[in-house]
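Lecture 7, part B: from sequences to assemblies.

Below are the input chains for today's worked example.
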Amino acid sequence: MSLLDWVVLLGALVAIVGYGVWKARGKQDMARYLRGGNQDRWHTIGLSVMATQASAITFLSTPGQAYQDGMRFIQFYFGLPLAMIVLSMVFLPRYFQLHVYTAYEFLETRFDRKTRQLTAFLFLLQRGLSAGITIYAPAIIVSSVLGWPLRLTCLGIGGIVIGYTVAGGARAVSQTQKQQMLVMLGGMVVAFIVIVMRLPPEVSLGNALHIAGTLGKLNAVDLSVDPSTRYTLWSGLLGGFFLAMAYFGTDQSQVQRYLGARSIAESRLGLLFNGLVKIPMQSLILFVGVMVFVYYQFNAPPIFFNQSELARAKQTPYAAELDTLERAHAAAFEHGRTEIWQLEHALLQHNGAAIATAEQRVRSANRASATLREQARQTIAQALPDANTKDADYVFLSFVMRNLPRGVVGLLLAVIFCAAMSAVAGELSALASTTVVDFYRRSLRENETDAHYVRAARFFTAGWGVIAVLFATFASLLDNLIQAVNILGSLFYGTVLGIFLVAFSAHRVRGTAVFLAAIAAETMVIGIFLGTNVSFLWYNVIGCVGVVLFSGVLQVALPRR
Amino acid sequence: MPDEPHPVAPSPAAAAPRAGEAAPFLSWTAIYLVIALSLAAEIAAFATITWIYR
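Predicted structure of the full complex, as structure tokens:
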């Protein structure tokens, strides 16, 4: 990394954190520390909500996913704008009427304490574990590509976030997130422009799209009704709708962001801004990955983007096999490049028959290269059973480090660090507010002063931060646990959303019925997860509908007091 | 444990935002319609691109 890259990276991070802490200065009370003092305008809310959702993995993995699998992941977000509308109409008015600090407070008003604390506990369990992964996942990629020590990278990200979140609370979080999101958006726009400019001068953007489309990278909409196909129009619209409802409507890391608005109107506009901008933003990130793919049709890609794992594998008896595969891959690339140029010339001449012939040859050459890359991946997995062979995560950062100019590299690293820090800060602040409001103040110390609860919130923010950093630092020893945590989130969201929907719409249903219904629905979702291959997006629908139906039946069946 | 609603004391009203404010421009219904129509346009655009390069 050049000096200019370091200046851009550190300058962006220090300026943003400094600005956030400065904006949050002054005496803290509970309303200010946990809800930002209700000072935020709609643009802060909107950017803050987006920054909480956008982790570093969004910017590292999503372009790689598009590189390998095309644009189909965009369908995952199709339900989100509709969810923003429903949340604005139904959820927001109730939260604002009750002036709650957490979403779960509302559940005690509507049902009882056990339902409130069950839901809050599920949030703490899921979000508390995933905060560690939010730090670890980008740290492992960045440290591998840049050669930085992994634990120091985890400590660096975690330490800075803990510092400003403890100091400034929710206000510091939202103010830094606003700036961080602007850096993320600006960085990806710059990345897209630079990548397009790095294509050969003869290749127009239109022809680049044609090449990407020919090789199956613009397959954005899948009309399949197979429930085991992960991303389809239907799973995106329906499953994505329920997932977005659950995440933005009931997950305290998001609810806390829009509860900090000046008014319900500002809060609504912030959520709707998210609904309007999210799909274009994700399209841009995926499109960056597609353009990286086109770039590597004209410039030789490595057979395996995670170069440190490749180098490690070459220290084993599999070195000769990997060398052979690399030579075959280089030859396949040269053949493919010749075919791509044939297609480019046919496109320039608008020769329909030549275009069709060249397209067939390009597809065939691309399949040959893909087969060799897969063979290399399998060889590395055999050589190093502990190796991370999910190469898609390394495509974008590897491309940035090899091909982008000085200064832009620093900017894109700032994007990745901003994303990591904004997501972790939102999580820590929400974990602390739920711990203090739903457990500490509710069940342990009910009648303390405001200052006491602010001190407790600072303590719990730091405590959750330390847990997250410790988890991230030792996560490499716990690969199976990481997978379990990732699965955990999608298993619980539907059930939690079901509890909230019953609270909002089924006025006759009481606490015990919904509590038992939630346990029954969750058991059903876990059974489906263990016994079938239904795509995870459908768990949100099944869990939610399960709670609504079971609670209705149980309310009738249970004896009245 | 009682299966009855247990009201939570609201947070200080002074710090609370005003509920039920009107939209600063257009009506809420019109804004919701803009969001829904933009989603429909995005899906149509992606479906068209998919169809062109099928």
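Note for the exam: Residues 28-52 of chain B form the longest helix (25 residues). Keep this in mind when comparing with the next example.
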